[in-house]
Amino acid sequence: MRLGRAIRFGLIGFAVLLVLVIAAGAIAIARFNPNSFKPQITAAVEQATGRKLALNGPISLHASLWPVVQLNDVSLANPPGFSRPAMATLQHLDVQVALWPLLFHQVNIQRLVLVRPDIWLEKNAKGQDNWTFQPQHAQAAPSQTTAPTSGAQSATQISVDHLLIENGSLSYRDDATGRVTTVALHRFDANAASAQQPLHLSADAAYDDHAFTLAATLGPVARLLDTTATAPWPVKATLQTGKARLSVEGSIRQPLQGRGYDLALIGDIPDLAALAPLLPGVQ
Question: Which string of DSSP letters, residue by residue, matches 148-197?
Answer without folding.
Answer: PPTTPPPPPEEEESEEEEEEEEEEEEETTTTEEEEEEEEEEEEE-SSTTS
